[in-house]
Amino acid sequence: MNKAIFSKLAQFLSIAIILAILAGFVAVFAVTPTFSAGAEEVDALLEAKYDFTIDSGSDASGVCNFGTDYAEIKLVSNGTYTSYSTLQYYYLEADAVVTDFGTVEANDWVKISSDNYDTTTGVATLTTYAMIDAELNITLNTIYNKYLYFKVVNEAEGVEYIKNAYFNLVHDRTMNSSDYDIVEIIATYNGGANAYNLASLTPNWVASPITISVKTRTNNPEHRVYYQLPGLNSEKINFKYNTTTEYFEAVILGEDSQQVSYSGIVSLYGNNVSNTDEREYKAKELKVYIDKESPVFSVAARKANGDEYAANSWSNTDITYRITPITEVLSGAKYQYSTDGGATWTGLDVSGAFYVYTATETMTLQFRAVSNAGVTYNAGDEDNVNSYVAQIDKVKPVLNVSAVDAGGIKILSVGSTAGSSSERVGYASDTLTFTLINSATQDDANNPISFEYYIEGIDTSFKAVPTDNNVPKLVETATLEKSIIDRVYHFRVVSGTGASDEVVFTASVLRNGYPVVMQLGEIAPNSAGWLNSSIPVSFTMPIRIGGAGEYEVRAYITGETTTEKTLTVKETVNDTDNTVTYSSSIDKHFETNGGTISFYVVDKAKNRVEVDKDAVALRTPAIKLDMTTPSVDVVTTITGGGSIFELAENEWAASRVTINMSITEDVEIISGITCWTMLDANTRKDILAPTAGKFVYTVDASGVYYFEFVSGSGLSITKAVTVNIDDSDIVLEGLEANVEGSEESLIDKGMSTDEDFFLTGSVANDVIISFLNSHGANGDVPAHFEYYYLEFFGAEPTANESAYTLGTGTTFRVEMPEDGTRGTKKYAFIIKSKAKYLDDGGNLVVKKTLPVTITINYDVRVYGIEVSPSGIPSDGSWASDWIEFTLNLEQQSGVVSDITIEKYQYKLGNGEWIDIDSSVVNNEAIFIFKGLKYYYNDDEKFDDQNSVSGDDTINAINAKKYSSYNGEIRFRAINTAGFPATNLALSTLRWILLRLAHFTQLIKLQVKS
Fold it and tell me: Residue 573: what are its φ and ψ, rounded to 5°?
């Protein structure tokens, strides 16, 4: 069978139905909710099809029937199905309320017989006697109490529909009926305003006495009715008969009861008139839940740090309210809070044995406890009825201190940095007004904010800042007699929570109008009324703050504020009268022409004083001052063909030269200027009149020309201008060629034409070629020519000048090749003058010579020599006589044979090369090495010097005594090209070949008599 689909929960029937009393029994029908559908939703279509009504007629659910009085229940279909063949009805007997039909076994449901189903009306009838008799087995002294549930099944569609309602069937078969049996029970509370269900499985808690009204089977006021509260005591309390209502009435826990709370069973008893027979009402269990106790509690408030929070105070942290129950009520209680004046209530959180609420902002709180019986207890602090006020402001105030002086300038504390001209650090003029504000936005606008201050060295504690129109302001005023110097102010803002912020401000206040004494030095102009030297000036002011730079002096040409500048001054402290003097001068920065210089003094607070103590303006008399020394720019030019060419410094010209002189552009000579031509550096000649703002002077000859420039104030400068002029043709007078290191020229003047030059013989070293020409160096006249060269091959060089290369300097070096060969080099030269001129077409030209050539034969072939010593002991011992060396051109295979040796040389150790005197014949020479003269004492030297007399050459030679040498001797040859056999500066290849030609011999020679 499919899972059950349940209907919506029905409502309780009105208590008024219970009042319907029928003859023989009371039957009242009630529908009670049993469960929540949970996650499953009711299918509205199925409910519409299969829902039915439980009609018990006059029988009431939960009301006891007695004896043989049975209830009859009809199930009336609300849907469209009426045929029993389609629908089947079932009932279920349960001992308690069913909360989950899924736990009910299928066979617990009992089908209502088709005999009891009217297919015409769709009504199924269930008569209860059958089930009661079956259950009670037709025995007495038994109470039947079951919860009846019903369902309808459509087997064709596989659907069952369970009615979510029950009928509590109660039947008493304990004994035969008696006229004093209790057959009707009515319970009310709140003075009869509300009905109370004594038979409820979960009775309601009430906070008032419960009145129980009963009737017996026979309405006889003489009957006796009692109640008993077994859970409280064993006393049976008598009901009173109400003649008006004809009910027996009793009040449970009435006003005279010492007991305020009870929850449990109430037992009812009926007695006969003689009170000899008693019968307890056992049809069902009756209960009362009464609790008149007030759930009293206490409230404690603490800040987040654990400190107690006092009412009407401020906190800068959360406030936690702890509610502690004092009176434990029997019904239990809910503890709640409200933040909206009691409009809504919310349950408090539980923390251990307490209930807590944490206020995070300013609010009015209400706390209450409501017992389950409905008794409410409210609490409040000492100033608020039933409420608590939490004043919370977590925002720390932020103090903003602004200060301005009498001029409206914003003043910053010492150590700050000014951001604009409208701000000043540390010094105020005349007054200093502090304005204090709290720049923080408080959480609670009601949090009181106060502003306080104290001054170091004056106050000992904080005090309130005065107010101006409710704005906290402190005004500090200086006087001429007493300034406020480096005063340290401590300001703070304090909120009602105790949170604070502090600002320390250091500043000085200086009064305006301090006395100034100005002194001006002597003024002595020249005959034209001009001054050319600075004018001393000084200013004396009182010392107020002390230290360097207390004041600043500024000056400007009167009426021309753009010329303003701060004077560089020397400070002098005058201890005798506590003043300071600032000394300076009026210098070239204030050049005037009959004007005056104005001054003013400013202190650290920018207080400006423009008059002295006698109210006289700080100003000079009219002066004419020009301290500018003339500065002249000189340009020399040549002209021609309508063009002008500017010469560089010391550059040569081949025509007349114009000297152009003008005052340097950024130099202003306000007193005027005179230019003198000079005979020499010290003697004036004539005044040179200016032309178009400059001075022009033309010369035709080389020389140094002097000019003196004098300002109207007498300052002057002498300018020397060097002019180089040579308008002659350049003439090449010849060439000079020297082997590097030699002063002898090797030139052999032309063999065919005047333009051809040849070197005599061959050379092996680099050749330096000098050009002898008419524009070369001559006395004091420096060389002013340049040469262009071209190496050529064949008979004649090219005539194209663009092929020539500009040489460096005034000589040309011909470098020898390093390939160990011999050959010929040819060069062509063009000589040009450096003296320039402009031709008729305005073109810049120079004079030059025709090309000349030179031919150079070179021989750098590698060769070696042979050295044959005679007289050197083969065992390396000392030689006892002079040693003879035979030197000869090496003739071994591979050595050039046509080299001619010009001379031989030797070297001892690391000494210099020495020519060998022996003549060279057929490349051979004999060298006798006689050692070095050395004497052991003066007697030996004397004996040696006097051993020869006359012209006895042989004896003179033989008399050479005391000669010795112990070391290395080297030899080399020099060929006719000047190339040595030991030239070590050649290429690696040549060095390898030269190893044969470099001869070294270690010798020991000692010649002694």
Answer: -90, 130
Q: What distance in Å separates the CA atoms of residue 126 and residue 116, rounded to the nearest whole number?
A: 7
Give residue-wise pLDDT tens across range 66-103: 666 678 899 888 876 666 677 889 999 988 889 899 89
Type and span of the H or E element at 943: helix 938-945
Q: Counting Cβ atoms within 10 Å, is residue 695 exposed (0-12), middle (13-18) or buried (19+)? A: buried
If you count them, how many residues does the chain have?
A: 1009
Q: What's the CA gap between 508 and 476, in Å, rounded?
A: 10
Q: What is the largest CA-CA distance in the chain?
A: 205
Rounded Cα–Cα distance for residues 144 and 132 (Å): 7
- 764: amino acid identity, one letter: A
3-state SS record for 741-802:
CCCCECEEECCCCCCEEEEEEEECCCEEEEEEECCCCECCECCCEEEEEEECCCCCCCCCHH
User: How far apart, in whole angstroms, are the C-alpha atoms of residue 44 and residue 53?
Assistant: 16
What stretches of 18-131 adopt beta strand conformation (E)? Answer: 52-55, 64-66, 72-77, 87-94, 110-111, 117-118, 123-127
User: H or E segment at 538?
Assistant: strand 535-542
Q: Please, what sign has the CA dihedral across residues 566, 571, 574, 578?
A: positive
Rounded CA-CA distance 124/147 in Å is: 18
Chain segment 246-305, per-residue pLDDT in tens: 999 999 999 889 999 999 999 999 999 988 888 888 877 899 999 999 999 999 999 999
Pair 946, 967: CB distance under 8 Å: no
Reference 924, options 865, 994, 978; nearest CA is 865
Count other C-beta atoms under 10 Å from residue 153's C-beta.
Answer: 20
Has residue 625 got a pLDDT over 70?
A: yes
33-37, 493-497, 1001-1005: the lowest-pLDDT one: 33-37
Structure tokens at 220: 């006889």
Question: What is the tally of helices (H) and strands (E) in the chain?
Answer: 5, 81
Q: Which helix (H) or strand (E) holds 829?
A: strand 822-838
- In terms of DSSP bridges, do strands 500-510 and 427-429 run parallel, antiparallel, or are they unpaired? parallel
Give the predicted TM-score (pTM) of the model: 0.50
Give me the pLDDT at residue 142, please. Answer: 63
Residue type, 181: D
Give residues with Cβ within 8 angstroms of 212, minimum separation 6: 185, 186, 187, 198, 227, 239, 249, 250, 252, 266, 268
> Which residue do the tokens 């040796």 mark?
901
DSSP helix/strand/coil, 163: coil
| Single-letter amino acid code for the residue at 158 | G
Helix, strand and coil content of the chain, in percent to the nearest 5, comes to: 5, 45, 45
Distance from C-alpha of 512 to C-alpha of 431, rounded to nearest angstrom: 10
- Determine the 3-state secondary structure of 191 from DSSP: coil
| Cβ–Cβ < 8 Å for 675, 690 | yes
Residues 6+ apart with CB under 8 A from 379: 297, 298, 299, 367, 368, 386
* DSSP symbol at 409: P
Whose tokens are 């046509």? That residue is 898
Distance, in Å, from the CA atom of 782 to the CA atom of 140, rounded to the nearest integer, reads: 165
Q: Which residue has the higher pLDDT, 280 or 355?
A: 355
pLDDT over 60 (residue 628): yes
922 phi, psi to nearest 5 deg: 55, 45
Residues 6+ positions from 135 with CB-CB distance below 8 Å? 93, 144, 146
